[in-house]
Amino acid sequence: MTPVFKFDGIYTPVITPYFLDDTVNWDALADMIDYLIEKGVHGIISGGSTGENYTQTIEERLEIARFTKERINGRVPLVIGTGAWLPAESITLAKGAKDMGADALLLASPPYSVPTDRENALNALAIDKAADLPIMLYNYPHRTGTMMGEEFIDRVGRSRNFCGIKESSGDINRVHLLARDYPHIQMGCGMDDQALEFFAWGAPFWVCGGSNFLPEEHVALYNACVVENDFAKGRKIMSAMLPLMHVLEQGGKFIQTIKYGVTVNGIDAEHVRAPLKSLNKDDKRALEQVMKVLKRTIADIVKEG
């Protein structure tokens, strides 16, 4: 089955820059979008958890998505997240995405309710019906409490719109399952420290929060593994990136770390909405050091060819 949309490359779940009073810093968001496209990312996701969607109303999410769509202006595809507590809210987001001309949806399991595969699939199919857009599934059971199992994939696979899956379970056996049994659904990396393994198993895309502030380095790994099929080079780049993965995942400070990385690059984005708090001085220094070494090391690897 030929997918209705191909998710190829680096897809950045873009952050939402805020002022200290929690209002959106639209100028900084515009700068972020331009920066990501200039540095070579292949697509942008609005309304993901990295964008702090869990702190935003549905109206805010749609406003941010519309702004992002207008700023992108057709330069790269736009994927809009539909993850929400209430199915009706997910459908509202999906319809809004359709109305504004988005390219695709990002569809996660509803959190906390822990639906069965059948219930989860019926919910996903209702969102699909509401928008009739290409869909990137988002399997992240550690956050949602629900694994998108084989029955779920079999059921949603009856619609051609389900053409990609961001796999974030952390279970390498899921990579094998998706690659072997569901080749018609593009498998994308959603676990940053497993990116090399995903690419080795044929994943054509990577959704990576770290590409908000290190886009060129993430694109370099994609190019080495997918475009050039040079896994010796890919291993070198991945080895250089592993300290970053460690910093991003330690202590539950993923979003705060990404937003500080963006700030180090010159776009003011450090502030996060409650309940999260910005990084302390030690965490900031650790990230700055990792960024410095990583950039230099990967630039040398790419230069070597």
Topology of this protein?
Layout: E1 9-13, H1 26-38, E2 43-46, H2 58-72, E3 78-81, H3 87-100, E4 104-108, H4 117-131, E5 135-139, H5 141-144, H6 150-156, E6 162-167, H7 172-181, E7 186-189, H8 195-200, E8 205-207, H9 215-227, H10 231-249, H11 254-264, H12 281-304
Parallel strand pairs: 1-2, 1-8, 2-3, 3-4, 4-5, 5-6, 6-7, 7-8
In short:
The protein has 305 residues and is α/β, with parallel strands linked by helices. 50% of the residues lie in helices and 12% in strands.
Straight-line N-to-C gap: 36 Å
Q: Could you say how many structural domains there are in total?
A: 1
How many DSSP E strands? 8
CA radius of gyration = 18 Å
Q: Estimate the mean pLDDT confidence.
A: 97
The SSE order reads EHEHEHEHEHHEHEHEHHHH
Q: Per CATH, which architecture?
A: Alpha-Beta Barrel
Provide the helix percentage: 40-55%
* CATH domain topology: TIM Barrel
How would the global form be characterised? globular
Largest sheet: 8 strands, parallel, barrel
Low-confidence spans: none
Secondary-structure class: alpha/beta
CATH superfamily: Aldolase class I
CATH class label: Alpha Beta
Strand order, sheet with most strands? 1-2-3-4-5-6-7-8
